[in-house]
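Re: that chain you flagged

S.,

Sorry for the slow reply, it's been a week of failed gels. I finally had a moment to sit down with the sequence you sent. For the record, here it is as I used it:
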Amino acid sequence: MGRQPEQAVADFRLVVVTASDTAEAERIARKIVKKRLAACVNIVPKVRSIYRWKGEVQEDRETLMLIKTDRRVLAKLKKLIRKMHSYDLPEILAFKIDGGDRDYLAWLDDALRKR
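Prediction finished late last night. Pasting the structure tokens below so you have them in one place:
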């Protein structure tokens, strides 16, 4: 049986990662879901990013990944993303999930559990 809903909510994270293109995002997403480091990854293509890099303002088209995961696997997730990512410094931001639909959170918990 999974964790209690209140405990599960406290452990879930939404991780935001940008990738150079959709192919890279899909490659990373498939691997992390297969390894149960994420329950789901939403891929949002054609994100326009304006940022400062090495003292200059840059602008690029990127692909955004919204990764649903758990704090217990966050370190492994970040390590795998850094290993697979083409950027020298990939954006990896993790946010605590404060709530959500109870049935969806139960599915999320189940999808992340090792079998």
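What I noticed first: The mean pLDDT is 92.

Talk soon,
D.
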